[in-house]
Design goal:
Layout lengths: L2 H22 L8 H22 L2 E10 L2 E7 L3 H4 L3 H12 L2 H6 L1 E7 L3 E3 L13 H10 L7 E5 L19 E5 L8 E9 L2 E3 L3 E11 L4 E9 L2 E10 L5 E9 L4 E10 L11 E9 L3 E7 L4 H10 L5 E6 L12 E5 L6 H10 L2 E6 L5 H7 L3 E16 L19 E10 L3 E9 L2 E13 L2 E7 L4 H11 L3 H15 L7 E4 L3 E3 L5 E6 L12 E7 L5 E5 L1 E3 L2 E5 L6 E9 L4 E10 L12 H10 L5 E2 L3 H10 L6 E10 L4 H20 L4
Helix pairs in contact: 1-2, 2-14, 7-11, 10-11
């Protein structure tokens, strides 16, 4: 308390004493003990009220001992069972968390991880993926600005996520406990298989296979690719202690249309502990035709090359670039991309009136907008000769097809002439334009449909910068290329509008995310947010039926079907109000990535330990780890002083006490006839 507060309290004592004396003793004829008691009650009441008016701050100090954290994280993936280390894992965990000395020094926290990270002390070892990067990410988030050790009980075999070695904070030591037998055993393995999702009928498609050998002698192995009972490719591979990897490239024929499943196998005369990783199933979708796209441009512009690469990232697409005067047979193409049209494009527009090919019109600073107004009636352009930069703003209400926002707002601006583009026809806007931070409410990218013919508009040049920016943000062109591919897919399809559109793959690998999405449109072809969509799923082999509801997510509905066993499935999606339905099928390939390992990745775990100034241990060295943690001077308990400041007015019992003293005074006076 301050000096002023102390003086006020002393003054309150004097005031309360003087008032009590004046009321009961001054000129009092009878100064009995009763009068003294009543004066005391009055003194307490007055002093209490004055104290509340002064409202001093009461400071209370307490001491707290804060122990350093110790995070014990257990690998809950099924690879631990495959390495026969699940019991060992539980024993090691129990030894650590039940050690009295560790409990005395540390605040022990228990976690488990597989494809997810969560606080837990129960482990079932049924995780289908191993993501060690999650440990680093979540511990950083949960324990900001804290220095603590982490013990990870794992085999170190990661199947998803970023490289975990450099993900952990180097200021916090990591102590991996390696599960499984580190003794190298003989093993042949298909380490990776690369194949495109699509191939074309009567063509050949490439398959790239990476093989790996673990052992100490020269061996000969047979590699085959088969479909059903037919062997499509066979090759003999020689491995030595110095040559432990091989790369096989094979061209396979696509002789059947539809989803085709193949099996790659490597084998030898030697006995192996784990033969599961000797086989890998893969599948492709064989298409019976290719979409041909013509890019027509009178300019040499990087947009043309960027669009060609983005479109041809889908093997179903073939792009040819022409000058306006060079293209002869428009009917040979499914989509026309008209880049910055001028009067030179007169022949193209005239021939397309009868050909009826869907078009993608891209404008820019060299576009003749007066001529373009004459050739289409979806947008009306009023442009000046001044140039302007236009930023993009994503329209979440766009519903012609499912498309995610790939961070359009942060893409570089497109360049076009300054002016307006008024919507005059049946047009859906995907992207609106902005000039700096000013929203124009004018389209930047839009899609129109007139008498069954579809047209897309992109009002600005330099889209090549978008593709480059997308790669900078995602370390991949994939998101941008999918955006362009969906645009081409919309233009390449001349089917009438469907009220129920369902998106799914023809095949999935077991253990990966299986998601089916759908959109339902009303009679005005507007996305119906009140639709009730359900899916009925049937395993064609076991005849087991499962039913799910599709949940709304932004501008589409989706269902997650994780956990299904390998096999063939047929399904039906139904909108329950209109009874509109869609039927399809897919296949789940038998592939358990967690069974691909015969040894723990001890070297990588040791690298992680070294990177964070920790140390790696085997499962039989837990006592050494405990001793190391106990002896480590970097982790000490901290004595923390907690100071709490409470205003006296918050003490509700003081008000109650004042009320009791006043009531007691009144009762005594009433009882003794002094009122």
């Amino acid at each position: 308390m301050t000096l002023n507060t102390t003086l006020l309290i002393v003054l309150s004592l004097l005031v309360a004493g003087i008032l009590s004396f004046f009321q009961y003793y001054y000129k009092a004829e009878n100064k009995s003990k009763l009068i003294l008691f009543l004066a005391f009650l009055r003194f307490i009441s007055i002093f209490g009220v004055l104290l509340l008016l002064i409202n001093p701050i009461i400071t209370k100090n307490s001491t707290e001992i804060v122990k350093p954290l110790l995070s014990v994280v257990v690998d809950n993936s099924s690879s631990i069972v495959a390495l026969n280390a699940d019991k060992t894992s539980v024993e090691v965990y129990q030894t650590l968390v039940n050690d009295k000395r560790l409990q005395e020094k540390f605040d022990v926290q228990s976690y488990r991880f597989d494809s997810e990270f969560q606080e837990s002390d129960k482990f079932d070892f049924k995780g289908t993926q191993t993501n060690l990067d999650l440990i680093a990410t979540n511990l950083k988030k949960n324990n900001r600005n804290k220095i603590f050790p982490t013990v990870i009980i794992t085999d170190g075999n990661q199947t998803s996520g970023n490289d975990y070695v450099y993900s952990f904070d180097t200021s916090n030591k990591v102590f991996p406990i390696v599960l499984g037998d580190t003794t190298k055993v003989f093993d042949l393995k298909i380490n990776q298989l690369n194949v495109n999702k699509y191939a074309f009928y009567k063509n050949k498609f490439p398959v790239e296979v990476f093989l790996q050998y673990s052992g100490g002698k020269n061996i000969s192995a047979d590699f085959t690719i088969s479909q059903g009972n037919s062997v499509l490719a066979k090759e003999k591979i020689e491995f030595t202690p110095s040559k432990k990897t091989a790369v096989i490239n094979v061209l396979l024929p696509a002789n059947k249309v539809g989803s085709q499943v193949f099996k790659a196998t490597i084998s030898s005369m030697e006995m192996e502990i784990n033969t599961y990783n000797n086989t890998k199933n893969f599948a492709i979708e064989v298409m019976d035709q290719k979409t041909n796209i013509a890019i027509i441009s009178s300019l040499n512009h990087p947009d043309v090359g960027s669009l060609k690469r983005a479109i041809e990232s889908n093997a179903q697409r073939k792009v040819t670039v022409f000058k306006p005067q060079d293209i002869k047979q428009l009917r040979d193409y499914d989509v026309l991309i008209i880049y910055q049209p001028t009067a030179e494009f007169k022949q193209v527009f005239e021939e397309n009136k009868s050909a009826g090919i869907n078009t993608f019109i891209i404008t820019g600073t060299n576009t003749d907008f007066s001529y373009l107004n004459q050739q289409q009636n979806s947008l009306e352009f009023k442009m000046s000769n001044q140039k302007e930069d236009y930023l993009a703003a994503f329209n979440p209400q766009f519903n012609l097809f499912a498309l995610d926002n790939i961070d359009f707002e942060n893409f570089p601006p497109l360049e076009n002439k300054y002016g307006t583009a008024a919507v005059t026809g049946n047009v859906s806007v995907l992207l609106y334009s902005k000039i700096r931070n000013l929203e124009t409410n004018l389209p930047l990218m839009a899609f129109g449909e007139t008498q069954g013919r579809r047209t897309a508009f992109l009002l600005g040049e330099n889209i090549w910068k978008w593709r480059l920016q997308s790669h900078v943000e995602n370390q991949s062109f994939e998101k941008f290329d999918i955006f362009i591919d969906k645009t081409i897919q919309f233009l390449a399809s001349n089917n009438s509008k469907k009220s129920l559109v369902v998106n799914h793959e023809s095949f999935y690998n077991s253990g990966e995310a299986i998601e089916i999405s759908a959109q339902y449109f009303n009679k005005n072809y507007e996305f119906d947010e009140k639709a009730r969509l359900s899916i009925s799923l049937v395993n064609t082999e076991t005849k087991e039926v499962k039913n799910y509801e599709l949940l709304k997510s932004e501008n589409f509905y989706k269902v997650n079907l994780d956990g299904l066993i390998a096999g063939n499935y047929k399904f039906s999606v139904k909108e329950l109000n209109s009874m509109t339905s869609y039927s399809g099928r897919f296949e789940i390939l038998d592939f358990d990535i967690e069974k691909q390992f015969v040894n723990p990745d001890f070297e990588k775990l040791k690298q992680l330990a070294t990177q964070t100034s920790g140390k790696g241990y085997l499962s039989n060295q837990v006592d050494s780890l405990i001793k190391s943690l106990l002896d480590d001077e970097d982790y000490k308990a901290i004595e923390k002083n907690n100071s709490t400041r409470t205003p006296l007015i918050d003490w509700s019992w003081l008000c109650l006490f004042i009320g009791l003293t006043l009531a007691a005074e009144w009762f005594v006076r009433k009882y003794n006839g002094l009122l």
